[in-house]
Amino acid sequence: MFGDQLTLSQAVTVCLFSISIVFLVLLSISWLITLTAKILNRKKAPSPVQAIAAAAAPEPEPVKAPVQDSGEITAAITAAVAAYLGKNSSQFVVRSIRPVSGESDWSRISRTNSLQ
After folding, report:
1. Whole-model pTM?
2. Radius of gyration of the chain (CA)
3. HSE (side-chain half, CA atoms, 13 Å) at 5
4. What does the mean pLDDT of the chain come to?
């Protein structure tokens, strides 16, 4: 069918065939990714006993830590920040101190880099 010289119709046929093959391969890859995601994210349905126990068990209320507004803690934190920044503690004001929990390493590093 194809010799040394291609006609325009033959070139269009080869082009359309090649494009259709590429899209079919991409579509099959997409289906495989979706299938893999569904298989990996499949969660087991809880048994009826577990579902009843989970529904009947009351959720414990979160325990709040007592708030301590100690001048010594504030002074120590202010001194630590002043030493880290290399400034005098009279050059800035500590407005609030609250514990940071569940902080990821990424956010901690970002905060540290923004202080420099």
Report:
1. 0.34
2. 32
3. 1
4. 79
Say whether 37 sits in a helix, a strand or coil.
helix
How far, in Å, CA of 55 to CA of 32, rounded? 37
Instruction: Give the DSSP per-residue string, 57-106.
Output: SPPPPPPPPPP---HHHHHHHHHHHHHHHTS-GGGS---------S--HH
Regions of the chain with pLDDT less than 50? none
Q: Locate 14 and state its tokens.
A: 């080869």
Question: What does each C-alpha distance from 38 to 35, 41, 42 come to in angstroms?
Answer: 5, 5, 6
The four Cα atoms 94, 100, 104, 110 give a dihedral, to 10 degrees, of -10
